[in-house]
Automatic annotation (TrEMBL):
Protein name in UniProt: N,N-dimethylformamidase beta subunit-like C-terminal domain-containing protein
N,N-dimethylformamidase beta subunit-like C-terminal domain residues: 93-420
Pfam families xref list: DMFA2_C (PF20254)
Keyword annotations: Signal
Taxonomic source organism: Nonomuraea jabiensis
Length: 453
């Protein structure tokens, strides 16, 4: 939907380092006669506490790149395709989470300015770029990673990659919503929302064979990073996947599945896998709003959604509320979050019942298709766009299998984990509230079907 473009353009401000990080060990410069596609990575270095932040974005195309795999198993390799105007660049891998840490860095690589993007049937692609670097993940722990590309001129960008879990049995599964990242990716001037002449000129399909826009990890930083940190601080057993990894059998034995802050684009296969898991007793948590909205098709590394004939809203056939417990209602949403069932176990140990700014920028509420036993834990009235009176709901229901399903009903739940740094009038009290509630949720869900306890 066009709605998020305005919001996203203002959400991310790249943070500088909070002090001077330790200087990395010198790395050898790649021999000039070595082609970039011949570069192989050294063994993983010991974990180093080095700042993962960007300190200088540089010019628009000074450095940028993408990975040829969205996720890999530990020990597998993936390729980086990098374009830069700098004479050299290097790459550093940071495992994100409660304590972001550098696990690897490359030698310096000869910089290459790759050819311009290609436009094929309205889809922007950089699949024709030559490989720059092959990365071996031997020794890397499972988790969500940012590869930071560092040009010799000082410019920097991120490339996200997930080292996925080989098994999810007995664990709480955190799912990166990479299809939503790609749907909103404006690199090359087109996304599923806009093109050179606006919405009518948008792409009807987008590919993972291109860099991400802005800093290179815009939606991960906005909607997922802080939830990963809280999950790791909870000390429950965790597994890591992207939503492209939601294939038959991958959730067998999982204790819970966590959809993070903005998880809008779901294929029938993704939904079938998560629904089957719920029906087998796997708990579900939706920490954002507007989840399971567009019914997409995946063709290898291409996401197809024309939003006209072939890609319709899930609610046109199977309302998302039958899975989530509620469905998307409003943009732009702006209001205070109001707890109505303070004694529910999810809110145990929290303080406060009203939190300004926590409802936004999209919100959900109980709607047709919501399970008959759904409980509204928080009901937050406000005016949608300053006009239509409506409300946002946080909901919980128990499936016949005993699985518990929570939905926050607001896209600012994860943002609120940052407290005042979220903006929008969100306070540090909201951070304490959401962190405790999220931890309660993960701790209970990690024990098995929540309705059985």
């Amino acid at each position: 939907m066009r709605k998020i473009l305005v919001m996203l353009s203002s959400l991310v401000v790249v943070a500088g380092c909070g002090g001077s990080p330790p200087a990395p060990a010198p790395v050898p410069v790649q021999r000039p006669d070595r082609r970039p596609d011949q570069v192989r990575t050294p063994p993983p270095a010991a974990e180093v506490q080095e700042s993962w932040h960007l300190t200088r974005r540089g010019a628009e195309h000074e450095i940028e790149g993408y990975a040829d795999r969205v996720s890999v198993l530990p020990g597998e390799r993936f390729g980086l395709r990098v374009s830069t105007t700098a004479p050299r660049f290097s790459a550093r891998a940071f495992r994100m989470g409660a304590n972001p840490v550098k696990v690897w860095e490359s030698p310096a690589v000869q910089g290459v300015r790759q050819p311009p993007m290609r436009l094929v049937d309205g889809t922007v692609s950089a699949a024709h770029w030559r490989p720059s670097l092959t990365v071996d993940t031997a020794g890397w722990p499972e988790g969500a990673y940012l590869i930071r590309l560092d040009a010799s001129t000082g410019a920097q960008r991120y490339v996200p990659i997930t080292v996925r879990s080989a098994s999810t049995a007995g664990r709480v599964v955190l799912v990166n919503a990479v299809t939503t990242w790609q749907a909103y990716n404006r690199w090359g001037g087109r996304s599923l929302y806009t093109g050179p002449r606006g919405y009518a000129d948008r792409s009807r399909a987008v590919t993972f064979d291109r860099p991400y826009d802005d800093v290179g990890a815009r939606l991960f930083l906005d909607f997922e990073k802080d939830a990963l940190a809280v999950a790791e601080q909870s000390h429950v057993p965790l597994a890591y996947l992207t939503n492209l990894d939601l294939k038959p059998g991958v959730l067998d034995g999982a204790r819970a599945v966590v959809s993070l802050g903005h998880d809008e684009y779901w294929s029938p296969g993704m939904r079938a896998v998560v629904t089957k898991a719920r029906d087998a007793g796997t708990n579900l948590a939706f920490l954002g709003a507007n989840a399971v909205y567009w019914r997409i098709a995946m063709h290898d590394r291409t996401l197809a959604c024309d939003k006209e004939r072939l890609c319709r809203l899930w609610r046109d056939s199977r309302p998302e509320s039958t899975l989530v417990g509620q469905m998307y209602d409003c943009f732009p949403a702006e209001g205070a979050y109001r707890v109505t069932r303070p004694h529910h176990w999810i809110f145990a140990g929290t303080k406060g019942r009203r939190f300004p700014g926590m409802v936004g920028v999209e919100s959900d509420k109980v709607s047709r298709g919501s399970p008959g036993n759904v409980q509204v834990l928080a009901e937050s009235p406000y005016s949608c766009g300053g006009g239509r009176a409506t409300h946002s709901d946080s909901t919980y229901y128990v499936a016949p299998s005993g699985a518990g399903v929570f939905a926050s009903g607001t896209m600012r739940w994860v943002c609120a984990l940052r407290g005042k740094r979220c903006g929008h009038g969100v306070s540090d009290r909201a951070a304490a509230f959401t962190r405790r509630a999220t931890t309660n949720l993960l701790t209970r869900f990690a024990q098995g079907p929540a309705g059985a306890h």
